[in-house]
Amino acid sequence: MRYRLNILWANIVNTFRRETAYFSQNWSNFFSTVFYTLAMVVFVDVLFSNITTLAGYSREEMLFMVFIGQVAYYFGWGVFGINGERLNEDINNGSFDFVLVRPAPPLFFVLFRNISIIGTLRDSLANILVISFLINWTTLHITLSSIVLGSVVFIAGQIIWQYIRVGLVFPAFWFGSAKNIMSISYELTETHNLPLEGYPQSLRILFTTLIPTIIVSAMAGSVILNKSNGLIMAGWAIAVTVALSFVFVWAWNSALKHYSSASS
Amino acid sequence: MEPVIKIDNLSKEFKIRTNRNIITGLFNPKNKIVKAVDDVSFSVNEGESLAFLGPNGAGKTTTIKTLTGLLYPTSGNVEILGYNPFDRDPQFLKQIGLVMGNKAGLSWDLTAAQSFDLIQKIYEIPLEAYKERVERFTSLFNLKHVLNTQLRSVSLGERMKLELIGAILHNPKILFLDEPTIGLDIISKKNIRIFLRDIQKHAKITIILTSHDMDDVEKVCDRVVVINHGQKIYDGRLEKLMGDYQKERVVVFYFESVPGEVVGIKHTEIEEQKDDSIALRVSSERMPKLIAEVTSKYPVLDIDIKSIPLEDIIEDLFQRDLTPHKLNVNI
Q: How many other C-beta atoms lie within 10 A of the C-beta of residue B87?
């Protein structure tokens, strides 16, 4: 455990060093997320200028969904997001050899190689604060138990997203690159920004089972806002995470056996 | 002495996709099997330095990658330091080092010192020993001035030396080197060869090297395994290989201008001819007679006697390898 914590800390430090190694990249993500947040807030305002609820969600609840969607994005994409891309690059150019030849557990190293805490805080803090100031929190029906259960769902959803993003890279072990396959995860991100209750039953089942992308914020948001049964949802999210863990580890072990290592 | 590397009947096949059509390739992929390593067996003792030679595509790098556990073999047994490399046991991985001339093991975006810090944590190198080794190796290679420079900004020669340091910081028992001097200048190559020989002799590190530069082989290795078309065609001491070929010598005669009759001397083969010199390949036994014959008949200015270069010896081995190969089998 201590060994893994030491490596995690080294990865956090090296991620920060890597992020700040190129001056021009320091603030680009910040501006990118400012524009996105601005667009989303304007969209919600336009949407609710003529209606009072959408899929059972008021303007404040919808802004809360934007809030939790952004937190999910920053946590998943900002902190860990680049690990899938790096895995694809490494397999493609053969640098993955050096991951395998070192004694750190390769799957652990691949999942936690890039941990961008400082960079994500820099990019996200202002945006998160702005959205949170726009929400009238007193109108939301949030309880302590809904926050706890919603957090469980949120964390399970984050783990699932990591699996999806990194798992979509696995075809690279067979074919040398999975860049385009990986881009499917960018499109799937959009699924978790909509309220859970807005989905037709069939899609709701699809996106919480086979492609469980809406657990992270749509389901977590619904639980926190007490719009669905928190216990059932948390149990479901944990069950999906456990099942996906088995599939993920099995797929990883199969993929390693097919690693052909780019020639040198 | 118990071998540290034992390889029995190692084979490695790759499945290569032949139907790349974006439509039909989905339903009818069509692959062919390429045998990169074919039934290779050999063992290596502790402290040995072995060169793994062969033309491009011969299977050298595939063999090294299989020995380091990067590739799963199709068949055969491999045992390194008592471990199966494909289990990737951390205790095994802590005892091997890998340098690849065309790939970066250190992070491009970080400084070498920062990458070394990560290596220290991954290999759990005691901090004092780690600092001492970084100090010693960087002094030896005169690299202290680039230790805190982003890796992408250092020269190729410096980067390769830093890669080498990164691969031996944890004091491995076996060091695998795949083209470690590729693209380097003469001085850098020389430094790396001296360093490798030194750690092999004094730290008893077993070295497995592939290189197309025969100077690397001559300066670093004692033993040679030659592989072609995935099959082993020679395994023996370097000095014996060189010795076997010393049955022939190349004698270079220098003249003001080469007399035409010299070209036709019997039992010789012209190696190279210029306006003022001619190099004749001759058996060692006949060499004194040849020298006597030429010097008595023609105005020779100087004579140079050369051994057959290792490049020529290896090339000769490749050409003599007439084993029928069935490399591609369609499935």
A: 10
| Residue B117 to residue A223: CA distance in whole angstroms | 43
Q: What is residue A83's three-state secondary structure? A: helix
Task: Tell me if A101 and B68 make a contact (CB, 8 A cut-off).
Answer: yes
Please give the Cα distance from B165 to A16 (Å, whole number): 24
| Chain A residues whose beta carbon lies within 8 Å of the beta carbon of residue B14 | 260
- Comparing CB atoms, the residue among B68, B71, B119 nearest residue A259 is B71
**So what's the ipTM on this one?**
0.80
The reported pLDDT for the residue numbered A264 is 56
For residues B1-13, one letter each, b for 16 or more C-beta atoms within 10 angstroms of the residue's C-beta and e for the rest, the string is eebbbbbeebbbb
Question: With an 8 Å Cβ cutoff, is B20 touching chain A?
Answer: no
Q: For a pLDDT cut of 70, what percent of chain B falls above it?
A: 96
Least confident of A98-102, B94-98, B134-138, B307-311: B307-311
User: In Å, how far is A217's CA from the nearest CA of chain B?
Assistant: 34
Greatest mean pLDDT among A249-253, B50-54, B254-258: A249-253
B163 touching chain A per CB within 8 A: no
Structure confidence by residue, pLDDT tens digits, B140-154: 888 899 999 999 889
Q: What's the number of CA atoms in the CB half-sphere (13 Å) around residue A117?
A: 9
Map residue B294 onto helix, strand or coil.
helix
pLDDT value at residue A106:
92
Distance CA A75, CA A120 (A): 8
- CB distance from B88 to chain A under 8 Å? yes
Cα B39 from Cα B37, distance rounded (Å): 7
Closest by alpha carbon to B54, among B239, B196, B309, B224?
B224
Residue B17, φ and ψ in degrees, nearest 5: -75, 125
pLDDT at residue number B328: 35
Of A21, A259, A263, nearest to B61 by CB-CB distance is: A263
Over residues A65-81, the mean pLDDT reads 87
| Whole-number average pLDDT of chain A | 89
Residue at A238: amino acid letter: I
> What is the rounded CA–CA span in Å between residue B287 and residue B294?
11
Pairing status of strand B206-210 against strand B49-53: parallel
Residue of A nearest to B69 (CA): A101
CB contact under 8 A, A98 and B98: yes
Q: Do B114 and A17 touch (CB under 8 A)?
A: yes
Q: Are residues A101 and B96, on separate chains, in Cβ contact within 8 Å?
A: yes
Contact B268, B259 (CB under 8 A): no
In this structure, what DSSP letter does residue A56 have? T
A14/B110 CB distance under 8 A: yes
**Residues of chain A positioned with their CB less than 8 A from the CB of B22:** none
Which residue is closest to B122 within chain A, CA to CA?
A: A104
Considering only CB atoms, which chain B residues are within 8 Å of A93?
103
- Provide the residue ranges of all domains of chain A, joining segments of one domain with +: 2-256
Q: Which helix (H) or strand (E) covers residue B186, if one does?
A: helix B186-202
Cβ-defined contact of A18 to B94 (cutoff 8 Å): no
| pLDDT band per the 50, 70, 90 thresholds, residue B329 | very low
